UniProtKB/TrEMBL annotation:
Domain HD stretches: 70-210
Xref: Pfam families: HD, HD_assoc
Chain segments carrying region Disordered: 1-37
Domain of life of the source: Bacteria
Gene Ontology molecular function terms on file: dGTPase activity
Lineage: Bacteria, Pseudomonadati, Pseudomonadota, Alphaproteobacteria, Caulobacterales
Composition bias type Basic and acidic residues, residue spans: 24-37
SUPFAM superfamilies: HD-domain/PDEase-like
NCBIfam families given in the database record: dGTP_triPase, PRK01286.1-1, PRK01286.1-3
Organism in which the protein naturally occurs: Caulobacter mirabilis
Keyword line: Hydrolase
Protein name: Deoxyguanosinetriphosphate triphosphohydrolase-like protein
GO BP field: dGTP catabolic process
């Protein structure tokens, strides 16, 4: 019989909230929460977080109630990150916080929306959803009287901007100018790796979307269970479920296989991370930052399996003609709205029009970009209809 879960001893390289580097704008400590738990709560209450409920993951949010949106995806990433951090003896609040925040800057319509905004903003620095996420938490959220943004801890900000690794190679890009400017006044050590907790959030994102894109693709009928039998990782798991439980219908077989695949990926990460920690003699949180490569990672074999799974999904799901059609529509919606708002800023909602006044062209473009990036899929579709379709006048 499996033994009940026992939380492991705290890892020596875990972040300690009592030793946090603090906030850009000093605030009294909370009597009821650690600094990282307080950051998590600020993100959950943010307007940008609520908007994720109707932003595309793969399928446009209005196409079906059961497909993942950015909000449900973020919650699933946070759950995996918190569980994984707990099992590894890390600070689960910090891992969960970075996971919840990681997609706040995504525009409507997923990567199609990001590409369209990047194209529209190319003369003025471009658009990057990671930078936009950073701008959301340090500037665009207005919830407090004494500062812009959410005034998150140093460790959370570090995790938000570099959970995928050092970013100094990106600072020369015009789209990263906001990060470059912020870092001059509040050094986030952009040339090092982030905490183990932030790395857990990043790999939890990979675990979540690989598994849940399989789930959504099957549910949408883009491929069948038997077509996955020869795909690494998911194929052997599906065959094992079929062999052990031939009584299950396709739906329960799918769900059981996805659960097992998540478990297999989590086990792989834990084993590889412990190996790297031992090999690199990682004993402190600063050792994690200065290791020279990721501490939290998949094994080489898992990397290879996931690459082949992603290739299958690319062919059968991400490039499916109906998905391509909605992406094409999304790009046109964003391009046309951006062009109109730039040429006729007076048609912007009054508060956004006021922000665009007395600015040069680059400043006005960034305001227009922020307005569009904050839209949900549904709001963008409706706003475009009101602006370009005459029948909406009635």
């Amino acid at each position: 019989m499996p033994q009940p879960f026992q939380p492991p001893v705290r890892a020596p390289y875990a972040e300690n909230p009592a030793l946090s580097k603090g906030r850009q704008h000093p605030e009294p400590d909370s009597r009821t929460r650690t600094p990282f738990a307080r950051d998590r709560d600020r993100i959950i209450h943010a307007t940008a977080f609520r908007r994720l409920k109707e932003k595309t993951q793969v399928f446009v949010a209005h196409e079906g109630d059961h497909y993942r949106t950015r909000l449900t995806h973020s919650l699933e990433v946070a759950q995996i990150a918190r569980s994984l951090a707990t099992a590894m003896g890390l600070d689960s609040d910090l891992a969960e916080t970075v996971a919840l925040a990681h997609d706040l800057g995504h525009p409507p319509f997923g990567h199609a929306g990001e590409d369209a905004l990047d194209d529209a903003m190319r003369p003025w620095g471009g658009f990057d959803h990671n930078v936009q996420t950073f701008r959301v938490v340090v500037k665009l959220e207005h919830r407090y009287p004494d500062f812009e943004g959410l005034n998150l801890t140093w460790e959370t900000l570090e995790g938000v901007i570099k959970h995928n690794g050092p970013v100094t190679d990106k600072l020369g890009r015009p789209s990263w100018s906001a990060v470059r400017a912020f870092d001059k006044s509040y050094d986030l050590k952009l040339g090092t790796w982030a905490s183990a907790e932030a790395q857990v959030a990043a790999i939890a994102d990979d675990i979540a979307y690989n598994n849940h894109d399989v789930d959504d693709g099957l549910q949408a009928g883009l491929f069948r269970l038997d077509e996955l039998y020869d795909v690494p990782l998911i194929g052997p798991i599906l065959q094992a479920v079929r062999a052990e439980r031939p009584d299950l219908d396709d739906r329960l077989t799918r769900l059981e296989a996805v659960r097992r695949m998540i478990g297999a990926m989590v086990d792989d990460v834990m084993g590889e991370t412990l190996r790297r920690a031992h090999e690199g003699r990682v004993e402190t949180a600063e050792d994690v930052r200065n290791l020279g490569h990721a501490l939290v990672a998949f094994s080489p074999d898992m990397h290879e399996d996931l690459a082949r799974l992603r290739a299958f999904l690319m062919e059968r799901m991400y490039r499916y003609w109906k998905v391509n059609r909605t992406r094409s529509q999304a790009r046109r919606i964003i391009a046309e709205m951006f062009s109109l708002f730039m040429s006729e800023p007076e048609v912007l909602p009054s508060e956004w029009y006021a922000l665009s006044q007395n600015r040069d062209e680059a400043g006005r473009a960034r305001i227009v970009c922020d307005y569009i990036a904050g839209m949900t899929d549904r709001y963008a579709i409706e706003e475009h209809r009101k602006l370009f379709q005459l029948e909406t006048w009635t």
